[in-house]
Amino acid sequence: MSGRVTDHTDLVDTAVGPAIAVIPAIDAAVSAIGAELAFGTPVLSGDITESAVREQAARWMDDNWGGLDVLVNNAGVSAQGRFAAGHEETLRRILEVNFFAAVELTDLVAALLRESPDSVVVNVCSILGHRGVPHNNEYCASKFALRGWSEAVRPEFSKAGVDVLLVSPGTIATEFFDHLIATTMNDCDCILSVTVNLEDVVVRT
């Protein structure tokens, strides 16, 4: 999947077709992504935080596949700045996309996942879900929540034959930081942020 769109959730049936992409960012990038995907992969565009979009995707899978092998919860947005300068709307939006959408979509397709003998939920977290970093409080909160939820439900899903995997990458060269939903960073804040060593975050975690 191209890194040019910051938010997407992949719903994959390995036996039938490669993926459905549910993409919150509705712009020209949606058409570009669809054109790049092979095998005529269907693309459903919409805001993954909206229940109607999630329900549409679940219905499509049930009607066309009758089951689901892999769900990749990869939708993500972020903001940067001091906590004192932040806004409730920013925090709630980030939690809705990064955490609640993943939880609610997983719940919605759980029955489909149980139809597959080797199904898996892949939750894309971050190293910032293991260690808090200055000026990323909203993003860290959302990824800590995703990590905690994943670990808590893993035994429950395992009993139903569904694996829950957590992927925690570091900084990756995509356009993610070009699409921050808010920033209150000043020059001093940027200098402080640069001093945070991500390798140290991994070691201390």
Shape: globular
Order of helices and strands: EEHEHEEHEHEEHH
Kindly, what is the distance between the CA atoms of the first and last residues, rounded to a whole number of angstroms? 29 Å
Unreliable stretches, pLDDT < 50, 5 or more residues?
1-8, 12-19, 23-27, 187-205
Count of runs of 4 or more consecutive helical residues: 6
* Strand numbers in spatial order across the main sheet: 3-2-1-4-6-7
Task: Provide a quick synopsis of the model.
The chain is an alpha/beta fold and 205 residues long.
Describe, in plain words, how this protein is organized in 3D.
The protein has 205 residues and is α/β, with parallel strands linked by helices. Helix content is 43%, strand content 17%. The chain has helices at 28-36, 51-64, 88-114, 137-159, 187-194, 198-204, and strands spanning 9-13, 17-23, 43-45, 70-73, 79-80, 119-124, 162-167, 182-183. The strands form 2 sheets. It has a 6-stranded mixed sheet with strand order 3-2-1-4-6-7. Strands 5-8 form a two-stranded parallel ribbon. Helix 3 (88-114) packs parallel to helix 4. The longest helix is centred in the middle third of the chain and has 27 residues, at 88-114. The protein is globular.
Keywords:
single chain; 205 residues; alpha/beta; six-stranded mixed β-sheet; two-stranded parallel sheet; 6 helices; globular; disordered C terminus
